Each structure stands twice: as C-alpha cells, then as structure tokens.
Amino acid sequence: MTDELPMQIAYPMLAENAPRFADDFVQQALEQGVRLDYSGESVGYVDSVIESLRANGITVQQVADVLFGFGCYLGETVARATGGRWVTSTATPLEGKSMFPIVLHLPSGLICDPTAAPFAALNGTGATLAAFYERYAA
User: Fold this and answer.
1) What is the structure's pLDDT at 5?
2) What is the 3-state secondary structure (H, E, C) of the chain?
3) Considering the entire predicted model, what is its pTM?
C-alpha cells in the first residue's frame, strides 16, 4: 500500500528516525501557532485536524506524508508515556501487516502500529487517535 502513496519524507523510514519525524511535525505545528507537547491531550488536536481534512474532502493520497507525520507524533506520544520504543516491523507480529516498516514496541510486550492510525481515521475505517492513545498508553 505504501508504494501507492505519494510521500516525500525527510529521512529514511527507519525506527530510529520516527522521533525525528515526530519532532518535525511538532515544529511545523509551532510554525502555525500550535504548541504540541507530546501529551495525551495534544493527540485530540491532531484528531480535530483529521476531522477537518475529512470534512473538506481531502483524501489520503493528497496528504499521505502529513498523515505519516501525525502517526509518528502519535507513536512518540505513546512511547514517551509508556517507555515504549520504535522498532522495525520485521520479526514482529505486524511483519507484513503494518502499513509502514516501523512499529512501536511497548514495555507490556504489545506491538502497535501508530503510523497507520491517522490513515484509518481519515478514511473513517479506524478509531480516533485519542482512542488509540488511550488503548496503548492507559
């Protein structure tokens, strides 16, 4: 699926770069006057942006790289709340199933795919990012 998405990303799509993608998203938001602090509450702001995109008829193909940034921010927020870490999806239960080759490994042993969550939310096929955060960081 990712081969079909028009994405221009700043770094190789590696687990160690996920925090950099998230930090870039935070910086871009700050340039728009929005301060994101990696809190669970801030994830609700990202949901409101996704809802606005959906309401305006924006498609995944139009904003794929933005959605990827949203997912990295979501994942990094969960990672900071739980002590989780980004890993490659290889040799995890999500190998071949995750949208991108990076996933989040939580101290509980769970593996989750935060980068796919914004895509599903925009398509209306997934839960909100706040619900994702609650599920994995609570």
Assistant:
1) 74
2) CHHHCCCCCCCCCCHHHHHHHHHHHHHHHHHCCCCCCCCHHHHHHHHHHHHHHHHCCCCHHHCHHHHHHHHHHHHHHHHHHHCCEEEECCCCCCCCCCCCCEEEECCCCCEECCCCHHHHHHHCCCCCHHHHHHHHHC
3) 0.94
